[in-house]
Amino acid sequence: xxxxxxxxxxxxxxxxxxxxxxxxxxxxxxxxxxxxxxxxxxxxxxxxxxxxxxxxxxxxxxxxxxxxxxxxxxxxxxxxxxxxxxxxxxxxxxxxxxxxxxxxxxxxxxxxxxxxxxxxxxxxxxxxxxxxxxxxxxxxxxxxxxxxxxxxxxxxxxxxxxxxxxxxxxxxxxxxxxxxxxxxxxxxxxxxxxxxxxxxxxxxxxxxxxxxxxxxxxxxxxxxxxxxxxxxxxxxxxxxxxxxxxxxxxxxxxxxxxxxxxxxxxxxxxxxxxxxxxxxxxxxxxxxxxxxxxxxxxxxxxxxxxxxxxxxxxxxxxxxxxxxxxxxxxxxxxxxxxxxxxxxxxxxxxxxxxxxxxxxxxxxxxxxxxxxxxxxxxxxxxxxxxxxxxxxxxxxxxxxxxxxx
Length: 405
Hints:
By secondary structure, this protein is an alpha/beta fold. The chain folds into two domains: 29-181 and 363-404, 3-Layer(aba) Sandwich (Rossmann fold), CATH 3.40.50.2000; 191-360, Glycogen Phosphorylase B (Rossmann fold, 3-Layer(aba) Sandwich), CATH 3.40.50. 42% of the residues lie in helices and 14% in strands. The strands form two sheets. The protein has a six-stranded parallel β-sheet, sandwiched between helices. Helix 3 runs parallel beside helix 4 (134-147) and helix 7 (219-229) crosses helix 12 (333-343). It is globular, with a radius of gyration of 22 Å.
């Protein structure tokens, strides 16, 4: 586990040792990240590397519609960085209250722009996966996209979709890499030991699905496709916590009486991720829809061959050299991808090495520098070389800000 000092937390108390490092007193800008998911290493890693650039990140766990009040009275920040807008939308309320919330948010965002507050938005998905209130999510996305000075996406596909769906100007969109997880999750167990811990034979071909199990991730479709290609030498691992009892029941029913399917239907702690990854030959992402996938970046970082659909920005991460990208519109696409991996058994290790090499190039230092340039309004520089490091990015954000004064 990475040894970090306590995370800066304005919600009371310090975070666990897995949090962010202590911030520099000479920070050039103070940015609120809202909402901040402490369960997901993505924001912790981004905040840690932004701190190295001289940006103080103020993590706020819970979405709030009282943005301007909190900005001036509590957070005392220079800017606001939005993530996961669908989490602002709770269960449907009265139509009138929902409209008033949107109107009030529009007024707050406009006021913050007039007062010189910098605003950014990272588009992790185009809509909430559970679709609590699609029209409210879209209305909020249109407002935030218009108000923000910079909008970050993790693929060129994402850029086109954000421009089309949310009417965001191309000039303020930054295509930025999704940083890797190489330094976050332990990776010390040997494959033989991992398989022994799970009761697997060393000569089996092991397919893995790992992560929270939600309907859009297509785990039931994976079970059905796997059943058509399974052989005495194959095993399928499903590891992760189902969204609800209904989702769990569907998976259990699909795997009933199958000795070649292992179900681990519970939360997988960070320390145990390596056991499943190191035991697997191929990691499968049977998603029905997605824009980007941190889980795919994780699997590639572990040096695993991968199967994923041709959705969102996935084809910009994974190619045939690293596994199989299947046609999500073809009802047999996932089955054919599984079969391809079985027929390519002797090439799986090489596919994994290629994926590892690609993941190593997605540096959080590069991500943080491009993010800082975006905060400063230097979107062209942040986008240079495909969203990579700008020519002057060896300077910290604090240094760049001082030169602009």
